[in-house]
Predict the structure of 33 kDa chaperonin.
Amino acid sequence: MDKLIKSIATSGFFRAYVLDSTETVKEAQEKHQTLSSSTVALGRTLIANQILAANQKGDSKVTVKVIGDSSFGHIISVADTKGNIKGYIQNPGVDVKKTATNEIIVGPFMGKGQFVVITDYGTGSPYTSSTPLISGEIGEDLAYYLTESEQTPSAVGLNVLLDDKDKVQVAGGFMLQVLPGAPDEEIARYENRIQKMPAISALLEADQPIDALLKAIYGEESYKILSQENWHFACDCSRERFEAALKTLGQVELQQMKEEDHGAEITCQFCGQKYQFNEKDLEEMIHDKAQ
Ligand SMILES: [Zn+2]
């Protein structure tokens, strides 16, 4: 089970989330069989979505769409405020590394586009907000979104590290926000620390990544932990849901599926689960429609 920890400086002027998202991103990689660059891009989007969902109160749902114009296509992820997240990337097969360093390349394959956030408070009218992609590296795009769209100056660091077989080794990150009324001197101290912070990948490689992240953010300043949330990859798809979707098709289309394809198979985009409907299932749907 992954965790997200919410903390606040004792001064009350800075707050930070730190996350270990390793299991979530591992699960996503297994379900979608993503190659290196696609794994990192999808993983970073999932972490960004966890941060945005943790920022919501009550029972709501947050969708993140990273809509680029390059090889990855779209990356879509949905999280709720109970610690469930699911997501997929249109092109799971992008696998590009720098020859000299083996560093995985992400930004250029996202390309230009939008970082879109849809918040559904369960009222039936979701709220959509978006900002342009700054680098396509996701972390910077989220920081820009939070600063511009939510008017809260934010620093974000997030990443996914792969082992030598390109499997997820560790994933996680942080978000740091300045709260209203922070004294200039205190802002300068935090800015200075963030600038000198070790690379996020070095922090994630520590024995205790959560502690390493907190230490890098707060340095010697005192802070307190407000809460801890557990997170995991979970899809809410079901046979019933896809059956309902099939039933919205016309009688003629269902008849065609029955006669020509002898059934229907639907794959859930978010988790890869396959659902089969045989001729008899389709026949029942056609029969129900006729009545
Ligand atoms: Zn599913």
In short: The chain has ten helices and twelve strands. The longest strand covers residues 168-178. Residues 36-54 form the longest helix (19 residues).
